[in-house]
Each structure stands twice: as C-alpha cells, then as structure tokens.
Amino acid sequence: MDVIIYSENPKIEPKVLKVDKDKWVNSKFINIDNKDLSFWIYRYAKYKIGGRWLEGEKFIKDPGYAYQYAMNIIGGRWLEGEEFIKKDSHWARRYALDVIEDRWVEGEEVIRKNPEQAYWYARYVIKGRWLDGEKFILRDIKWSYHYVINVVRGRWLEGEEEIMKNYTIACKYVNMLMKRKLINPKDVMKLLKSGI
Q1: What are the domain boundaries of the chain?
Q2: Please, which residues have CB within 8 angstroms of residue 34's CB and are 6 or more apart in sequence?
C-alpha cells in the first residue's frame, strides 16, 4: 500500500488516503511529484498529528521539506532525510546551522560548490576561514568581497588577484585594509594597479 495525500484545495486540510498503486480516487488519478508529496506529508505531520508520522517519512524526498521535517517535527537530526538534504546547497547549509549546529562534513561537498552558501557556511557554521570552500567562493566577486570583509577580516592574499579584477570591489577591499591598518598607504596604488 502507498500513502497518498490529496486535497482539492491546498489551503484546506489534506485528506490522507491509503490506496493501492495506480488506483483511482474520487474519479481522479493521483499523480504528484516529490516536492508536492513532501509538502503534504510535512503539513500533515505538523498540523494534524503534531509530531512525527513514521509511515509518511519515507516519502519525504524534497531537500527543503526534509530539512523542515527535521527542524520543526523531529527537532534534531533526521538521518533518513540527510541523503536528500545534502543534495541542495542551501538546505544543507541551513541543516548544519539550525539542526546540527556544527559542521556537517557529509553536506560540505555540495555547500562548497555554491559561492553564496559557502560564504554563509564559513561565516556562521565554521565561524572562520574555510580553506576547502575558498576556491569556490572566489568564483563570485560579490561573495568573495563579503568573505574577505566578514570572515577573513584582513588581507586575503589568495583572493587578491580575483578581487583586483573588479575595480569597485578592489577599492572597497583596499579601503577596508587601510581602515584596519593592514596595508601601508604607500602600497595602496601598487595594489590597485595590480588588477588594472
């Protein structure tokens, strides 16, 4: 038997039906994707049961709803859902931050490949430089800038070549170094010219 959740109107409570695969229900064939099914199972567990729904858990395959199920229903790690959560950099980072509250090595591979998520992971989970993620952060000048200002908080020799390619970001970077007295004023023009 498969568990199917169905509703005519998503704003009202879903109906939970147990039907054999490929059966018709209310003269309609039920065919919903993983995200929709995950949504209904999460909502049913949260609002109808008020806790875990063990029979429905195996159908939660969407990374976002797997994260929400762990965070809001279980209130901690959900090992069965981690295989889906670690497929999405945003939800993997949020899972590490909000649920595990520490580094999540299993999710780092996908997190590091997204410059924005790698930045947030370094800043709020690792709370410092993340050498494994830096080469990916460097692929996006915006997140490189945030990384150097808020995480490195000093001169980032490994990233300077990329930063100097964008004159606006380079000026902001040099300004930060001067304010924090991390660069000799005589070296400012030489550094700026290195990227021009």
Answers
A1: 2-139
A2: 59, 61, 62
